[in-house]
Design goal:
About 55% of the residues lie in helices and about 10% in strands. The chain is mainly α.
Length: about 325
Amino acid sequence: MSTVVEELEKGGYLTKEEGRTLMFIPGASIPMTLVKSDGGYTYDTSDMAAIKYRLFEENADWILYVVDAGQGTHLENVYAAARHVGWYKATEKRVEHIGFGVVLGEDKKKFKTRSGDTVRLVDLLEEGCRRSGEKLKEKGRDKELTTEEVVAARNAVAYGCVKYADLSHNRTNDYVFSFDKMLDDKGNTAAYLLYTYTRIRSIARLANVSAEALEEAARTTLPSIEHPAEWKLAKFILRFPQVIAQVTAEMCLHFLCEYLYDLSRAYTEFYDNCYCVEKDRVTGEIIKVNTGRLLLCEGTANVMAKSFSILGLQPVSKM
């Protein structure tokens, strides 16, 4: 940090005032304090040293600061100061504050335990596992799945619901933490999305069609887009690259979450109106497999799987 202060002083960027060493930045209402009157350094000093190191030692093209929104003014001053001294140009490097809001309890106050302590993530995850396990038992899944499958589904929903609840909101806004809403399998939640994905994957198993067979069919067969629900789903699938570009440009993952939810709803509409597999009502034997529709299912599932990977969600084959 002393080296940075010396460099800025030699460049004529610093001013002495009441024993402090200050840096005035064009357009900023408050100067940065590089050295206090007692000779100590500040966050301004360490952040100026850090950004210089990242630009010149690490040769970073993108520098993204994931820090709470309350630090916005401070960080903008650091970026403006770095540009002012010629360390980088905004047209050549991406230096950006990825601010985020506060998690609130259901009382709309900062999320804490009853005793007033900070809530530990491990406690949240354990509580999520407990509630997720209870939900699976309520639906009788423990009687249909193996012990290993129940544990996998419980963990996927519990961990996924906490992650998704955080990422599905605009990161700059505060949000209310509620397990009841997170574990709801009928709204914009990880539980609903994971259930939809599992249902999609089960259709190919029902039709006795392997992933390899679908991949081979995709080379010679076009997806079916004759029914309005098929066409709607196909258009949603094609929007995926556009959504990823928007997420990258604005660094807001809630756009991907909103897209996933809309894609899942479009799939549900398709599922309710378009049979992929027809069975004999008496014998239960498969009469017809609509390959074009199975390809739409596969395309939807692949987009969802890639989105889950980006969001840190772990899908399961059975729920």
